[in-house]
Amino acid sequence: MAAHVNDWNKRITIAEQMLPLISRLHREHNAVTTIFGRLLVKETAVEILKSHRYARRITERELDPALTLPVLQQLLELELGSGSIDVGRLAVGFEEQGGGDDAALRTYLEQELAELIGDHSEQKHTDVVLYGFGRIGRLLARILIAREATYGGIRLRAVVVRSKGEGDLIKRASLLRRDSVHGAFDGMITVDEENNIIWANGTKIQVIYSDDPATVDYTAYGIDEAIVVDNTGRWRDREGLGQHLKAKGVSRVVLTAPGKGDLKNVVYGINHNDITADDQIVTAASCTTNGITPVLKVINDRYGVEHGHVETVHSFTNDQNLIDNFHKGPRRGRAAGLNMVLTETGAAKAVAKALPEFEGKLTGNAIRVPTPDVSMAVLNLTLEKEAEREDVNSFLRQVSLTSTLRQQIDYIDSPDVVSSDFVGSTHAGVVDGLATIANGRHLVLYVWYDNEFGYSNQVIRVVEHLADSRPRVFPRRVAPAEI
């Protein structure tokens, strides 16, 4: 008992020593530190130790903070540029190559971070406007505010909505402050009613009232070359979304829904590099398409997929009725909180827009269920090669931990998790390894996804890509094909 207490006291003391180092790296170098992808910036000493414990998933043992503290100390001695630095990977990598004294550690870090050292290129800042302020819009605002404080780059400047009358601004600020699913806003929110401004953690959000995207003059508010994120779903084709480009101060448009016609449906991590300078309008596809496409991509690359069926068990959305009433869509008029509602999904077909090799290979349906957030996709696949359950799970686990798709694919094998455990997940999808079924060429995968927050993070990644402000990650991650 006493030994356990002493060990805890020793570890928490080391973690407390890390706090000012992490803060200085962020403040002085705009360097964001992580432990195997888990952010350390603005975390408590206890959270830092939890991140070290998380390392068991990668290294099969808890990471000793005594190994990471010297790395942080040495990083402060380097002339670092802006980037995301995985202290956990650096500490383990140094130990695996034999370790050594401070001089050896310094040499190792200089080799691993050569691209980052001495790079003091000025960071670009890109204005972002949210057109609409519903479920996704408010989550995008929360993420944008946090990302600007952590990384800089993209910055939320304005929200455009249709006025709902007296008290509109107060109500919208209140909805940003409190959320029944995702909890309270992390910080302070105040309202300037005279100037239609919401202040959130020091971020000035100009609220603009308009029902015509083409006539808004963003330059009048000091906003220029902005990326407009349309989360209303009101327009989904090039003609409708093109109205935003007629407004003064707009450079590009992102739709938070599947697009129609020739618009590119982008799943970040899969086909974001297909975006060209000529693409002024892109879409971030759907939450389900984002949830399943990365998993389908890596499985197809490794085993080949002949065909498959996607069944989504999806939380109800604002599109459905609370009680039985008229709805233009089949079955969606029935009470969302009382029924499982069988409906259609375009996600299976939409996968082919991001992965053309899946054209004609997938079918899909959806079942809406009485939960407010977090959904599941069941991928029932016929493979070209035979696969064993352990091999599939081991592969997906490694992809989730060390690959370039680690922000898109997560993996879990806990016997007790349920949907509410995935509220707030930043990943596009989370593979439930205990549910995996493999029998010859027949494979069934279960993928959880936070259809609100996880999807919103994917949207932000697309916006950052358009703004050329995605944080550089060091050490570099490997492609899934190399695992």
UniProtKB/TrEMBL annotation:
* Alphabetical keyword list: Oxidoreductase
Q: Does the keyword Oxidoreductase apply?
A: yes
Example GO molecular function: oxidoreductase activity, acting on the aldehyde or oxo group of donors, NAD or NADP as acceptor
Under the heading InterPro entries, the entry gives: GlycerAld/Erythrose_P_DH (IPR020831), GlycerAld_3-P_DH_AS (IPR020830), GlycerAld_3-P_DH_cat (IPR020829), GlycerAld_3-P_DH_NAD(P)-bd (IPR020828), NAD(P)-bd_dom_sf (IPR036291)
Iron found in the keyword field: no
**Locate the Glyceraldehyde 3-phosphate dehydrogenase NAD(P) binding domain: which residues?**
126-287
Record-stated family: Belongs to the glyceraldehyde-3-phosphate dehydrogenase family.
Which named protein is this?
Glyceraldehyde-3-phosphate dehydrogenase
Report which gene this protein is encoded by: gap1
